[in-house]
From TrEMBL:
One of its GO terms (biological process) is cellular response to leukemia inhibitory factor. PANTHER family: E3 UBIQUITIN-PROTEIN LIGASE TRIM (PTHR24103). PROSITE patterns: B302_SPRY. CDD domains: SPRY_BSPRY (cd12904). It comes from the Eukaryota. Residues 147-338 form the B30.2/SPRY domain. The gene is BSPRY. SUPFAM superfamilies: Concanavalin A-like lectins/glucanases. Signal peptide: none annotated. This is B-box and SPRY domain containing. InterPro entries: B30.2/SPRY (IPR001870), B30.2/SPRY_sf (IPR043136), Butyrophylin_SPRY (IPR003879), ConA-like_dom_sf (IPR013320), PRY (IPR006574), SPRY_dom (IPR003877), TRIM/RBCC (IPR050143).
Amino acid sequence: MQNKIVDQCERLQLQSAGITKYMAEVLPGKNQRAMSMASAARELVIQRLGLVRSLCETEEQRLLERVHGEEERAHQSILTQRVHWAEALQKLDSIRTSLVDMLTHTDDLQLIQKEQEIFERRAEEAEGILDPQESKKLNFNETCAWSPLLTQLWATAALGSLSGTEDVRIDERTVSPFLQLSDDGRTLTFNAKKPKACADGPERFDHWPNALAATSFQSGLHAWMVNVQNSCAYKVGVALGQLPRKGSGSDSRLGHNAYSWVFSRYDQEFCFSHGGQHVPLGLLRCPAQLGVLLDLQAQELLFYDPASGTVLHTHHTSFPGPLFPVFAVADQTISIVH
């Protein structure tokens, strides 16, 4: 028994020595390395953000100079037109005054004798004076402020700050009979074999596998993310509330009418669709998540791959009314990320 206690004491002593050595030799080294790595990481963050800040400042200066240059160009074009039309008015006024004077001081016989001479002369004087026509040169070209770099940085920042804050949920009343909606209102599952039994109200899509969100956006900046990694056939975008819900025609098919703007995937093909016009998108990889940015102040719709930081497509237009997030799925499931 005494030998066992002695053995136990020796083991405890060895264990204590190991812990003492670990505390004296290993932990100080670990602490030093942690501090050194933290310092290096801090320097890396400062260095990289400094580079980003410098790039942003350079791009800001470049774009502001382009905007100023375009403003000056439009202003000079308008001034030139103003001078031109002022001269034209003066010339026309002179011709009109001359004709009035001639009518006042010339008798009828002289007018008849000089009719051809009068009109040929006045026509020659008025030659080249045309009615004003609309010209793009007189308009400010807003594309001068567009920049792929700015768009990508803005999309990254907007998605990072806004994504998940929009509580986008699907309106169960709009869900196609071919889709199953999850209890939380964020996941749509396609079922081609047997349409579910549901009340066929005026809001419900009865043919295409579509669904609308419960809320619409009328102003401001909005962002939401959709998990699409499980589906090879889906559409994600925005639509007007007037989007027809019934029938198999193009009016209720997303991207094939004037009421909807969507990013779509079918197998390995991707495109942006609106009004029956389809813009092919040459994506190198299938996005697992799809970010949607809607800037109603700038009237811009943007689709974004958050994993790669890639802007997939941007669309500028004058949206005619409040917009609802819209979804369609014809393979597996898609889910709104929150």
